[in-house]
Design brief:
Layout: E1 11-14, E2 24-29, H1 35-45, H2 52-59, E3 65-73, E4 84-93, E5 96-104, H3 113-127, E6 132-138, H4 142-150, E7 154-159, E8 170-175, H5 181-192
Parallel strand pairs: 5-6
Antiparallel strand pairs: 1-2, 2-3, 3-4, 4-5, 6-8, 7-8
Pfam families: Acetyltransf_1 (PF00583)
Protein name: N-acetyltransferase domain-containing protein
Region (Disordered): 1-25
């Protein structure tokens, strides 16, 4: 497997709702210093979570891995880096990306942050040359399935008994045509229209 193209170490903004007051959300590349915070969200999000060591191994370049985080700066002037409230990661091979993880901090769920994270991640993959993105979802996780279908993913195939912990089938969903300028334009417009309200 070839090493991923490095792509931009970019920083992108995601809009907060006007009623949220001052502050900002920033989408940027994950660094080793972020791993402990990411691992804590991972532990709270998945029954079989990645370990901190797995994240560190990916960031050291052992695989064609691309990891991103979203930070929330509440504009209060606190010292230090803004806290991480979401993250996502994919593995890139040629023009295909496989979305391995996507999660938000429990306090930030149901606030459209997941939508902003997904669209930002798709655009980041496009920026690194991906034309399609695949992901796995449990057959019983109908909420996640509806979320991905809403944003253009379609069912590609089913693997019976894919998840060893429950014996559930695994569904592979795919988003295609990412290299098309019209698709990118749609993603950018939708992302600009997502207004997120931070938790109280």
């Amino acid at each position: 497997m070839s090493r991923a193209r490095p792509g931009p170490r970019h920083s992108g903004r995601i809009e907060l709702a006007p009623e949220a007051g001052p502050g900002s959300l920033t989408f940027e590349s994950m660094t080793p210093a972020d791993v402990d915070d990411v691992a804590a969200i991972e532990e709270a999000s998945f029954p079989t979570p990645y370990t901190a060591r797995m994240f560190h191994d990916d960031l050291r370049g052992g695989q064609p891995a691309c990891w991103w985080v979203i930070r929330h700066d509440d504009a209060r002037g606190d010292r230090g880096r803004a806290p991480i409230v979401a993250y996502a990661g994919y593995y890139l091979r040629r023009d295909r990306a496989h979305l391995a993880k996507i999660a938000t901090h429990p306090a930030w769920r149901r606030r459209r942050l997941g939508e902003g994270l997904l669209l930002s991640t798709l655009l980041a993959a496009r920026g690194q040359g991906a034309d399609s993105v695949t992901l796995e979802v449990r057959d019983g996780n109908t909420t996640a399935q509806r979320f991905y279908v809403k944003w253009g993913f379609v069912l590609l195939r089913r693997f019976e008994g894919y998840y060893e912990d429950t014996g559930e089938d695994g569904l592979i969903l795919a988003f295609t045509g990412l290299a098309d300028r019209r698709t990118a334009g749609w993603l950018e417009r939708e992302l600009a229209g997502i207004a997120i309200v931070p938790p109280g």
